[in-house]
Amino acid sequence: MESNASIKGYQIVNLADMIIELGEDMTKHILLNFSCHLNRDIENFLHYKSIEFSKQALARTHLVFCSYKSKLVLVAYFALANKFIQVEPNALSKTLRKRITKFGTFYSSIKKYIISAPLIAQLGKNYEYENENLITGDEILKMACDKIREVQLIAGGNIVYVECEDIPKLKEFYLRNGFVEFGKRRLDNDERDDLSGDYLIQMVKCLHKSVKA
Fold first, then answer.
1. Residue 211 in this model has a pLDDT that exceeds 50
2. Residue 159 contacts residue 205 (beta carbons within 8 Å)
3. Please, which pLDDT band fits residue 213 given cuts at 50, 70 and 90?
């Protein structure tokens, strides 16, 4: 099973590689060791959707392991996908708008830019090891952004976006890590069971440099 080292000796494993090497049943057993009581959407995705999404190439899940008590344990994961986003011209600062809109097209009929961008679709910490402080949210997010940056150095692009619930602590987390809010997306019907509210906050970041809103 191929993995690549990240910060502080963490190992990042592509779920698709794990399925090939260990088989689907053993992989499911490993995934069931992940728990996130703070957000059931994050937990349910890994338990019940990630394998199928990986097999269909809808999203690529990356598992983060580290050594704990002489064992390699699953401490976090993130899932990446390609999406199109709609951005209103006045939703961003002139500097950031200039940097990201060159990757999209302006449609006068809806007065918005349509931009193809990588989405950090899921980002989660395993709370089975909550008291051990094995990893932080900032470190998981950095790993996800670094993985996207690797792809962009080969294929082009320089932005990443996320969607999060309208919860102050979540918004502050992404703002602290350089993301800027640009819009809202109404929840789909199949998202309402696991997420609160009626919409998700959309946020974007330029990976080349930090940009002020």
1. no
2. yes
3. very low
Domain boundaries, the chain: 3-206
Spatial contact of 2 and 13, defined as CB atoms under 8 Å apart = yes
- Whole-angstrom Cα Rg for the chain: 17
Query: CA–CA distance from 23 to each of 16, 28, 47, 52 (Å)?
Result: 10, 9, 15, 13
Residue 80 pLDDT > 50, yes or no? yes
Give me the mean pLDDT over the 33-52 stretch: 93
C-alpha distances in Å from residue 71, one per residue of 18, 68, 75: 17, 5, 12
160 pLDDT above the threshold of 90: yes
Q: What is the CATH number of domain 3-206?
A: 3.40.630.30
What DSSP string describes 145-193? HHHHHHHHHHH---EEEEEE-S-HHHHHHHHHTT-EEEEEEEPPGGGTT
Q: How far apart are CA 74 and CA 52, in angstroms?
A: 19
| CA distance linking residue 58 with residue 155, whole number of Å | 18
